[in-house]
Amino acid sequence: MRTPLLSGREFTDSDDAAAPLVAIVNEAFARKHFEGRDPVGSYISATVSRPPPDLLIVGAVKDVVLDGLRTAPPPTVYVSYCQRSELGPTVVNIRVSGNFVEAERAIRAELAPRLPKIPLDIHALSEQVEGTLVQERLMAILASSFGVLALVLACIGLYGLLAYEVTRRRNEIGIRFALGARRSQVLGGIIRGAGRLLILGAALGLPAAWAASRLVSSMLFGITPADPGTFAGACGLLVFTGFLAAFLPAYRASRVDPMQTLRNE
After folding, report:
1. Both 73 and 123 in a single domain?
2. DSSP letters of 232-261?
């Protein structure tokens, strides 16, 4: 599994049934029972068989995920497979390269003749991890869908507001053109108005989003509820789509015919 070794040694071929019983512990076990000291060389009593034997700790390894991506690694003791007197259902982890289907076929061809009465279930580790994330993936899809819907509604509202503002100020814009205003000035003025609305929305929305993020903290792993990158990305996407929605009304305002406006006046 390529679990990093922190101190001591890994299991070797010499750790068989005739050798002294040995064990390897993880960081969580060392923190809990040895208060951060190096546990290598100490003895522990573990219920890996009956009666509980005394095991010599020969190594310490880093914590690994065992019970789920959202669960902290528990204190763990690893023992040599060849030294266990009681064996139940066995899980074998095999590192392969190349196509998984071909590897599965080769593994079955190797093990089936040796274990004719034992069912073999072979799954990719990535497939097993994906199977534990069904609920999280469903929640992510639902949250993303509602987020996209909210973004679309915000853009529609911004577009409608600016379009109404341009229509209401159509005569004013035409008179400005007649007095010498440039199209870039009119276009920039409307875009700046959209920018003020977006800044106000972000100023009100960010604290609300930060407070609401605490409600989903139990569903997150590998990221904090107030992750700066996520908030920055959401604000950036809202600003980009908001300016995109504001561009069409602004462009229409820049195409107002001043002569037609003066005739209407």
Report:
1. no
2. HHHHHHHHHHHHHHHHHHHHHHHT--HHHH
Domain with 98 in it: 93-131
Helix, strand or coil for residue 32?
helix
**Do 149 and 247 have their domain in common?**
yes
To the question of pTM greater than 0.85 for the whole model, the response is no
Tens digits of pLDDT across the chain (265 residues): 889 999 999 999 898 888 888 999 999 999 999 987 899 999 988 766 666 678 999 999 999 887 777 778 889 999 888 887 666 667 788 888 888 888 898 988 988 888 888 888 888 888 877 777 787 788 888 888 998 898 888 888 878 877 777 777 777 777 777 777 777 777 787 788 878 888 888 888 888 888 887 777 766 766 777 788 888 888 888 788 877 777 777 777 777 666 665 565 5
Query: Cβ distance 59 to 10 under 8 Å?
Result: yes
**Are residues 146 and 204 both part of a single domain?**
yes
Same domain, 101 and 49: no
29, 75 in Cβ contact below 8 A?
A: yes
Token pair for 110: 């190797």
- Whether residues 66 and 146 share a domain: the answer is no
Q: Are residues 168 and 256 in the same domain?
A: yes
